[in-house]
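In pairs, describe these two lines:
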Amino acid sequence: MDIQFSREKNITVASVKGRIDATTAPEFERTFAGVMDSGEKVFLFDFDGVEYISSAGLRIILAAAKRLNTIEGKIAFAALHGPVKDVFRISGFGAIFNIYETRDEALADIS
């Protein structure tokens, strides 16, 4: 798994590639927590390069969302496809988070 962070329109964009599973989830959690600790509170996760996410990855996202909620932050997702899109749909994440078809659509709506 690889995560690259950038800033676009006052939004922290996390471009994620690879798998978010039991093996990579601790790194995902540490990296995401580190960026939140630096004061960032509005995130867009571009999952175009994510091929799989397990319950461990979903747990980290939920925990981060709870933490961000206390400081009026938010998380949105873009470019989900294949099994990742199915997992988000089945788990009910679509009712909890804003999910966009494309990164550009998300950036236009969030900002």
Summary: The longest strand covers residues 42-53. Residues 55-69 form the longest helix (15 residues).
